[in-house]
Htaa domain-containing protein
Amino acid sequence: MFTAATGRRGATWRTRTTAGLGALVLGGTATLVAATPASAAVQDVDDATFTWGLSGYAQVGIFGAWTFKDLTGTATVLAGSVSGGTQQEYLVDPVPATSFPTSKAGQTPNAVRFTGGTGTADPATGAVDLVWDGSYTVNAYPASFNAPNEVYSDPQLEVAADGSGELSFDFTLGAGTDMSGNPVAETSYGRLTVVTFDEGSIDVTGDGEVRFSPDYQGVTVTTADSAAQTTTCTATGGATGWWGSWAPAFVGAVPASVRPHFYSTGCGGMQDNKPALPVDVAFTVAEDVPAPATPQVQVSTTTLAADGTTDLTVTGTGFTAATDGTAAGIYVAVGPLVGDAWYLSAAPFQHAKYVRTSFAGAETATGAQLAADGSFTVTFQDVAPVYTKGTTTYDAATTPLNVVTFAAQGSPYRGLDTVTPLTFVDADGLPVVVDIPDEVDPEEPGPGEFVWAVDGGTSAVSLGVAQPTAAGFGASGALRTVTVTDTRAGAPAWSLSGQVGDFATADGALTFGGQSLGWSPTLGTNTVGAVAGATVAPGTAATDGLRSSRTLVSAPAGHAAGSVAVDAGLSLLAPLTTEPGSYSTTLVLTALS
């Protein structure tokens, strides 16, 4: 309790004391809860399948369904009922749902399938970036025509979450005879984009199952040495009105003998079978394995009384799987970091408790239980700034003390290390300043006393772990109750105000402004007619928040003799740019009368 009185007649007086506001933990010893966007569901894939029926045109052709042959790598053929097969894995609806011929409605198409695709996929959005090994060969003409084979190798499918993307192959045209009977040499065209995809092309049909609908309608292509593209089809009289093209770069690259298979050269009829059929991709969705918990520690206060009377409660979370070093348990200790290998022994510490899953019963002076979920709670009594272990005396003034955790039994694993610095304050040495000016008030206060005290003395107020919001890192706490008593004759007016400086880490390397702290004063027992100060919100300007002096409580002249208990909720909104660290500031309370 701090008391200030004057023996001089009518003098104005002022008392001031500092009360620790206490270790706002943003990170370091307790990890910063960072503001991060929602994580994507993208996963690595090594078992993707790719299934495609090419086009409706390939299911009928001029001379019958196209022939799939000369398969390499992981490529296989699913023979549909259009060719007398029985596959039921790749199914499509007829025109106008897809380009599958209405004449084959109810039948299943021929399709090529690749397996073992690798890359990434997002089961939620259907976005993929996958590649497969192998090739297939097709030919639209009977063998007697000696038409060049079309060889499609190593498909790569890249589609973004919005549905935009492309399917490419290494494309080779085999040797043969062109439509004029002239010999054609084998030609490799390298990797060509065969079809493209536009926004909205994705249909997630199941868990790890996606269907992609390629572009065609409205895609224009310029053909120099083959039939001109028809772009005037209309949806009248039951017609689809479809006209378009596969990827123009692909259509422009292939020879005139096969080019018309991939763009509109008329309207209706088999022209409606030229668009590419859907591409089906399937992959195993990885089990949603939660990320391993990060060891975090919270300490009830990091500002302690220098007389060694402060008790600490330490809680920890995230000290989980045996693979991370907790199989042997951990030490929770209070003391200095002696040398680079301070974690090899608990002997130098003032207090140390062996916390482990095998511990049974209530907490003791030397041990406590580590819960199955990786949490613990331990207490340390009478933590002092100076102590002796063996023949060595440790003094916080020269060797700072900390609350630490580390893997037990000399484990080399450092993933369980946390360090929370402690500060000691001399309760008897808190500054009390009395300013007595030369001017004398015309009124005489008369006998009585004006005193105020903070419950818990200098024990720090902890705001805990700040959490990210859109506006900044938010945290809250409560000021310890302040009791003001005024029994002076004449009942002069008085006020009690508070102000903070900047928040800083123990080494002063990291700071943020005191304007980030606000309060909401409330009154409890009030027999003196006091009035609570206004709520002050955290701010960003230099004069916002408690960076400027703000009234906590006041009483007007002529108030009743008595006392008032004042509480205040504390609210913090630190900038999102604040670096991880353990921050503290000092709240200065000033009484004026």
